[in-house]
Write a structure and sequence with these properties.
Elements lengths: L2 H4 L3 E16 L5 E21 L4 E3 L12 H13 L4 E7 L10 H16 L6 H8 L6 H6 L3 E5 L3 E4 L6 E6 L6 H6 L12 H5 L8 H7 L1 H11 L5 E2 L6 E5 L2 H9 L6 E8 L3 H17 L1
Parallel strand pairs: 3-4
Antiparallel strand pairs: 1-2, 2-4, 2-5, 2-10, 5-6, 7-9, 7-10, 8-9
Helix pairs in contact: 2-3, 3-11, 8-9
Length: 293
């Protein structure tokens, strides 16, 4: 039996953007944003088997994603380059989260790789150091490394931890993928929203400035939002295409999920202010202490 076969999996949870405002465009072409990230307990799963020969390998190929574009491989390479580590790793990824759905699956996979290998390679980097390595991999990667619900500004990397209600969510996955680049290139996209405060958000300001552009360009997403409006109100996460509605209890979320149109994939998940990745890291540290006792 290989090490990957019996290792405990590391979770890479999804996130939801509970609001998204586009405040302007920077000189480098990136947009200045305000958003709120919250995790949900729907996760990809990863397994890692350290190697002594320095090779970074995928145990399973991902259709349509070459190794050079795989964020888990790039994260491992970035961590090794930043630290001078000479170890390698075999990585197995079980994809649960849809690609291109606005749930942050690729960014979360990269963050879990950084956090896990920091531990398994014995590097002992702090959270700030890991977040610094994470940012060039993607603007969303640092929030997954820091693993706490957050108010975010800048391009999404200026993070302030927040405590939010943790409702149940119904998430719909419409057919197809939404192009983030196309949404931000839309000439009608609102790019000059006034900034708001966390207090404004908590009072109910949950606008997503990308919503109209996505509705115009992606009829299936518009249809999913229209259906959610009938069962409690729908929101777009990031630039989509996944959409969601919140419920105070699991039973209500499940009842709505069971009524969802068959053309949409649907699931329910619990909102989490603390990422499941932190629980896995805590468990790993505790196990190591027990082994050394």
């Amino acid at each position: 039996m290989t090490p990957l076969a019996h290792a405990v999996a590391w979770p890479a949870p999804a996130k939801l953007n509970l609001m998204l405002r586009v405040l302007g465009r920077r000189e480098d072409g990136y947009h200045r944003l305000q958003t709120v990230f919250q995790f949900i307990d729907r996760c990809d799963r990863l397994w890692f088997a350290p190697r002594t020969d320095g090779a970074i390998r995928r145990a399973l190929e991902i259709p349509g994603v070459p190794a050079s574009a795989d964020l888990t491989v790039r994260a491992a390479q970035a961590l090794r380059a930043a630290t001078g580590c000479r170890l390698g790793v075999d990585i197995r990824l079980e994809k649960v989260l849809p690609m291109g759905g606005g749930l942050g699956g690729g960014s979360s996979d990269a963050a879990t790789t950084l956090v896990a290998l920091n531990r398994l390679w014995g590097l002992d980097l702090g959270e700030d150091e890991l977040a610094g390595i994470a940012l060039p991999l993607g603007a969303d990667v640092p929030v997954f490394v820091r693993a706490r619900a957050a108010w975010a500004e800048g391009v999404g990397e200026e993070l302030t931890p927040v405590e939010l209600p943790q409702p149940w969510y119904l998430v719909l996955i419409p057919p197809g993928q939404v192009s983030t680049a196309a949404v931000f290139a839309d000439p009608q996209l609102t790019r000059d929203s006034l900034p708001i405060t966390l207090a404004d958000f908590l009072r109910g300001d949950r606008r997503n400035d990308c919503l109209d552009a996505v509705r115009r360009g992606y009829p299936e997403v518009a249809g999913a939002l229209a259906w959610l409006d009938e069962v409690g109100g729908g929101q777009l996460t990031g630039t989509g295409g996944c959409v969601f509605a919140s419920f105070t209890d699991q039973e209500a979320a499940l009842a709505a999920c069971e009524r969802a149109p068959e053309r949409f994939r649907a699931f329910i998940a619990r909102g989490r202010n603390r990422s499941p990745l932190l629980d896995r890291l805590t468990s790993e540290v505790a196990s190591a202490v027990e082994r050394s006792a």
